[in-house]
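User: Sequence recovery, please. Input:
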């Protein structure tokens, strides 16, 4: 039961933290609860569908179908997060200096609210599919009652931590909100890039840089409470490969460079109108 609770907690925490960050960053957006709620529902439904079809999916492409599906989900989620970090947050921060900055950017049509639904749905779908598949597989070889109890404890714990994060972020001054949430989302994006590298390697699409660079499990294990939180917040890996580190670093560089470029364009003086 404890092992199941830890694994499910870790998966739930990643999705809950992400949703909490997005909810805090868009709390002034009219109707954002509906978009976020729809994203959670669609993601959960997609996770159940993927889990139900797991047997057929895993038989695709000589047994690596599940890895290909995971890679596709991670790739789309990464693109949406990069777009959010580079464009949405900077456009919102420039648009106003008060509490309605980000909401006004969406409300005036410069940024479509459906992007919230897509990002949240993909995050919940990815973590939810892994959770359902793990619980189903574990329950087939152990006591189903204790497995279900552990899963429920993990879901409740991960959701509670996500709500606490949202409550804390909701009290951050609006002028600092963009910097705080954008930084957290950037770490999430880099973490997803690292997981994408692992999925591509498992699918056999990338064979380079597959060696493990180091093993830090001796001082911070992945299944420890601190390790679980570090993995959820910043993508901590005790045994990262060179490919994972490269994807992680390149994503951060892309986000930082793109953000700086967008800010420079926003500060650029507008030429005289002839």
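Assistant: Recovered sequence (274 residues):
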């Amino acid at each position: 039961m404890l092992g199941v609770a830890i694994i499910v907690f870790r998966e739930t925490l990643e999705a809950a933290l992400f949703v909490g960050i997005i909810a805090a960053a868009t709390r002034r957006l009219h109707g954002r609860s509906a978009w976020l709620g729809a994203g959670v529902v669609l993601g959960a439904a997609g996770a159940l569908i993927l889990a139900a079809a797991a047997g057929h999916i895993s038989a695709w492409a000589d047994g690596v179908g599940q890895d290909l599906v995971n890679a596709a989900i991670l790739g789309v989620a990464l693109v949406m997060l990069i777009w959010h970090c580079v464009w949405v947050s900077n456009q919102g921060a420039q648009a106003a200096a008060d509490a309605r900055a980000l909401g006004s950017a969406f409300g005036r049509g410069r940024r479509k609210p459906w992007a919230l639904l897509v990002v949240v749905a993909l995050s919940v779908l990815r973590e939810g599919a892994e959770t359902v598949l793990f619980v189903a597989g574990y329950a087939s070889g152990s006591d189903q009652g204790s497995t279900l109890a552990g899963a429920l404890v993990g879901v409740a714990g991960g959701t509670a931590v996500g709500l606490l994060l949202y409550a804390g972020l909701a009290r951050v001054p609006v002028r600092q909100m963009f910097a705080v949430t954008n930084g957290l989302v950037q770490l999430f994006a880099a973490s997803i890039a690292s997981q994408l590298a692992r999925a591509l390697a498992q699918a056999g699409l990338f064979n380079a840089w597959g060696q493990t660079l180091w093993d830090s499990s001796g001082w911070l294990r992945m299944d420890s409470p601190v390790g679980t939180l570090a993995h959820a917040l910043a993508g901590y890996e005790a045994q990262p490969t060179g490919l994972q580190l490269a994807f992680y670093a390149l994503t951060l560089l892309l986000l930082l460079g793109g953000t700086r470029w967008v800010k420079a364009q926003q500060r650029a003086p507008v030429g005289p109108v002839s």
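The CA atoms of residues 67 and 202 lie 6 Å apart.
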